[in-house]
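Example complex used in Figure S2.
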Amino acid sequence: MVVLFLRNGRNSFHRKENHMEKSEIFKKLVDIVSPFAKDKDALSKVSDQMSILKDLKVNSARMVDIILKIENTFNIEVGDGDTDKVRTIGDAVNYIQSKSS
Amino acid sequence: MKTCWVGNDIVDLTDVDGQLETYGGRFVSRVCTGDEMGFVDSAQNPEEIFWQIWTAKETAFKIYQRLNPGESFKPKYFEVNLLTCLVTHSGCKIEVKWDKTCDYVFCAGHLEKDSVPKKIFSSISALNQIEQNSSIHLTESEQKSAQTPESCAVRILAKTLLSQTLNLDWADTEIIRRPIPHDWAPPEIRYKGRLLDRANLSLTHHGRFFACTISFS
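Predicted assembly (318 residues):
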């Protein structure tokens, strides 16, 4: 009983340590995307719904670079086949949160 | 008559986005397969070979996207063979051709199985050359789907090519891209208000350069 209690306690502690708030992920993600967004007007009102390619006008080569920077910043791995999971800012935030929790 | 799907892509080698040193260290290995990495690593000019591979992947993706709307670009999944000039992905084979100068790498391609009689034309231009030929105008619908000066310029280039090769009066021709979730649909050609389904068009621009590729079956 005591062991179970400690284990649960330790797990919840680790979850808190690894769990990043969506707002924090959003901010870091926007920092990553910003230098490559050609549409600075759209960038100034960036939201979850915005497409990184279409709305922020990031070119597709830079999108690969952004994925690499996401991996480095959040210490996660984005699969080669997962690019459709990071199309919008909101999708990317959710994906990063699911991978880093 | 069947449409001959075409795709294209251009990279301005003088633009910051055309310089590999400005990308992260794992960029090339993230894009290329093992075989492609072999070509890049053994090339006298690795940068040029890399962009040759990249433009071929983009070209093939544009065609694949026509057949599979809504797909997103997964560069490593498109395998480029520089010797056979073929790009393969999910059973699709795309024949590609390159035009390279010290300023740009341009690639155009079409589906290999397209055996219908076809004519394929490409035109490449720099922004200042298009501005000089400003007698061609865009319609209101075209302007709605062309949100940047670069998008307008590449449509003017395409209307010029359509006029020169297929004798289509540019005033009766429209190039439209419809918005779709997360992206724009591939361009359509409308002539006198009707979809010209025997012709297919691909547009590309990067840095100072613009290009269009047209097929006519």
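The mean pLDDT of chain A is 85. The helical segments of chain A are 2-18, 22-33, 40-44, 60-74, 89-100.
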